[in-house]
Every structure is written in C-alpha cells, then in structure tokens.
Amino acid sequence: MGRTIRPLIGAWWVIFCHHPTSRAKSMRRSTRLTRLPTLSPESGSALYALYLRPISQQIEYSGVSLASCLDAVGLPLNLLDHEAPIISARQFLGLLREGMTRADEPALGLLIGQRLLPETHGLLSLAAMQSGSLRETVAILEAFLALRTQLVGFRVVTRGQRVMLEIRESHPLGALSTPVLEAILLAIKNLLDAVAMGETGVIAVHCPFPAPPYDALAQDLFSCPVRYRSRTAALVLDAAVLDRPLRAAQRDAFSAATAACQSALQILAETQSVSADVQRLLIASRGRFPSWAACARLLHKSPRSLHRHLQAEGSSYRGLMDQVRMQFALDHLQSGRFTVAQTAMMLGYTDLANFRRAFKRWRGQTPASVRPHPGKRTV
Transmembrane region positions (predicted)? Predict the structure, then answer.
C-alpha cells in the first residue's frame, strides 16, 4: 500500500500548569505543549495510552492472553511499556474484537467503560472536575472530546426539560458499534457523577441497539434506566440540575485547564492533512466513492493541486481508496453478516475476482479467510 500517511490525530501530551487568569484565552501562549513521537497508523484516529492500559487490563482479567490479542492486530507486547503509546483506530477496534471473541465476553465494552475512571481522560478530566456547573462540564465535553478520540462525535440537544448528550459515530465502527458506544456512554456517565458528586441528574441512557443478554448488568452499572432501540446513543439529563453550583469548582484551575484544551485543539486542527480530508470524504461515502475530479472539487482544489498535496504527504488517491476499501471490507466480512460477493458489490466491484485479488494485495489473505467459521462466535 506504499507509505503510510499522517494520522488524523497527532500525538500530543499536554502538560498542565496552574496559571491564575480571568480569561481562558489569555493563557494559550503560556501553556506548555510537548509533541511526542507517534506510531503512524495505517488508517483512522490515534488513541492515547490513557485508554489502552485499562482496556488491556480488562482483556487480561477476562482470562485472555493479552500478548496474543496484541500480536493479532500487529502490536508489540512492550507497547504498554512506552510512556505514551499511540495506536490507530483500526488497531484499537481490532484489539477490542480480539478480546471479545477470545474471552467470549459480550459485555466487554461495558466492563471497559467501568474501568475508565473519571481521572482517566487527562486534561479533559482536569477541566471537567473544576467546572462551576454541569452546564460547563457538558460544554467542555462538547468542545474538547476530539482531544481524546475521534471515533465518535458529541452533540448537546435540549428538548424542553430534558438535555440529550448524543454520541454519534464519526468513524465506521461496524459490528463493534455496541461495545464502543457502551464504553463511551458509561465513561461519560461516571465522569459526570464524579463532577457532581453523584447528583448528575442523568435520568436515562439511550442505546441505538436491541437489549443485550447482559441488560441487567447494564442497568446496574449505569444506575439508571437503560432504553434500547433508540434513535441515537445518548445520556438524558434533567435540565434543572445543569446550573446548580458545584462545590469542588476552582475557577483559576478551570480557566487554566480550558485554555490548555483550547491550545491543544488548535494544534490538532493545524496538523490535519489533505490526506486526512480525502480519507474522511471516502469514509463518509460508505462505498459510493467520488471520482478523483469530484473529490478535488469537494475539497475546493484542482485535480493537479490535490495530486501535488497528496504526493508531498507521501500518499495517493488510490492508496487512500485502498485503505478505506480494506477497512470497509474487513468490517463487513468479520461481522459474519455479509458474503464475499455481497461485500464486493457494496464496495463497487462488478467482478468478484478483482475484489479477491485486491483483498489479497491489501491483506495477504483471501476474503473468505477472515470471515467467521461456522459455529464461531462473532461480534
């Protein structure tokens, strides 16, 4: 597939310093930001070590060899020895899939979410824990969740006396949508509980999938009603609690943490590459890929200019297309819900033999070999 492109998320470690200030924006230049080396993901977002370690711990507690799971997705065991390892979204989802399959634990997403303690989220946790109200906490999450992951997006919707904190996929999660959404919903619920000292006003959790066999565990861990087959994943809050003052709030610390988040987000935006823009367009097309000329037009560039930008970044339109097609193909085939022929058709291949050859070139194995065997549990 040629050279790898820059990740959609850069690897940033934000060193937080207390600087008293009346306005968060005035602190952007004084906040120290240190860039760390990254592992170049083949596709998708980079994820922080903050999440890799608790996920790995839960996989091991489930009685599964962590080394075998890491090896299956091309990650070294000593990755956890690094101070700040970075893995791609593809590797993260692969690790989660391996853990669920090998442990035969369908509730792994929930168990991981429970392990993501309120302080797990680094700078985001610092800002949230110093909020003056839950409304400020929610605003912090909406503005800066991208600093932790771009697998999902976060949106706040007010409907009368109810406030919906909606979680939407921004990266194709495929069959792993349920465990990822469960983990994120529970982690955010636990963070809100910690900020408000247990009085969050979260009155329900909405999940866009059928009730799982471990529904009783979900109700227990969320400590509120969990409703399934909803339109979107969401935490539902009582609007009346959002403006109650929080006792633990420290304004100087909140301003400093918010300023650091803003600086990190600004740097993140500046590191987004043209390759990443093309990749997002291809992912959003869900198999109905735009032509080279249409892609250039959508990015307000001429085809020649787009070619020069991609070439300078060590990538190409065909290489990016192959990356996205490979990920879509893996998601569909490993789910066990689609045949090889159906997958080829959804990716725009009219000749099944061409799809098989392309897949062999991408992965070094046949499409049929990655589908679950009869009787084997799939996730």
Answer: none
CA atoms of 346 and 332, how far apart (whole Å):
10
Q: What global pTM score does this model have? A: 0.63
Taking only the tens place, the pLDDT of each residue in 267-319 is 666 556 787 788 777 877 766 788 888 888 888 889 998 888 888 767 788 88
DSSP secondary structure code for residue 244 in this structure: S
- pLDDT, residue 197, reads 84
Q: Is 300 exposed, middle or buried (0-12, 13-18, 19+ CB in 10 A)?
A: exposed
DSSP string, 180-220: HHHHHHHHHHHHHHHHTTT---EEEEE-SSPPPTTHHHHHH
CB atoms inside a 10 Å sphere around CB 102: 17
DSSP result, 24-88: GGGGTTTSEEEE------SSS-EE-HHHHHHHHHHHHHTT--HHHHHHHTT--GGGGGSSS--EE
Q: Residues 220, 312: one domain?
A: no
Structural domain total, the chain = 2
Of 245, 270, 295, the last residue of a domain is 270
pLDDT tens digits along 80-116 = 766 555 666 778 888 888 998 898 889 999 999 999 8
**Helix/strand/coil for 13:** strand
**317 in helix, strand or coil?**
helix
